[in-house]
Design goal:
Layout: H1 5-17, H2 20-27, H3 31-45, E1 50-52, E2 57-59, H4 61-89, E3 93-99, H5 101-108, H6 112-118, E4 122-128, E5 142-144
Parallel strand pairs: 3-4, 3-5
Antiparallel strand pairs: 1-2
């Protein structure tokens, strides 16, 4: 891509504000910086977008065409940023969880109703497997296992301690 978003934003700001100095103030940049951004943009595109005199700025025909596209692109970038902000505020998407079968049955499944009430935008995919799996290959977001992880670049944290006991009924003994 030849054009940067900063150059596009400088161009749109100059057109909207009517002057390079007003655009510079709006963008919190220097007037010379905005002017250089405009010059770079025109050089990259190989066209003159604005006719500039000491007192006036006037869009060229190419400038009008580019302005319409630049506005759409900048609006699209702003919309994408807003969507990411909303996603951070309210978690959404698919969460793939893999645990051993007994843990899934006794610890995870009883919490599903409450979890779905708290996070309705999250789609749960639950898998139980008693083996150590390749989390990346199976596209698993969260795995709960007993024991230490083999050397890995994955992040792990202990949830609790699991104590092993040998139990027998009095009749067995």
């Amino acid at each position: 891509m030849k054009t940067s978003l900063e150059e596009m934003l400088a161009f749109v700001s100059v057109v909207d504000s009517g002057s390079i100095s007003a655009a510079a103030e709006q963008l919190e940049q220097t007037a010379s910086g905005v002017s250089r951004a405009l010059s770079r943009l025109e050089e990259k595109l190989g066209v003159t977008l604005l006719r500039r005199t000491t007192r006036r700025l006037e869009l060229t025909e190419e400038g009008e065409v580019f302005l319409a596209q630049a506005r759409r692109i900048l609006a699209s970038v702003e919309q994408a940023e807003e969507q990411m902000t909303l996603r951070r505020q309210a978690p959404a998407g698919r969460l793939r969880i893999n645990t051993a079968s007994p843990f899934m049955l006794h610890a995870i499944l009883p919490l599903i109703g409450e979890f779905r009430a708290l996070y309705p935008q999250i789609e749960l995919e639950l898998n139980s497997d008693d083996r150590i799996i390749d989390l990346l290959e199976r596209r698993t977001d969260l795995a709960i296992r007993i024991g230490n992880l083999p050397d890995s670049s994955l992040h792990a944290r202990p949830l609790c301690h699991s104590y092993r006991r040998v139990l027998a009924s009095p009749e067995y003994l």
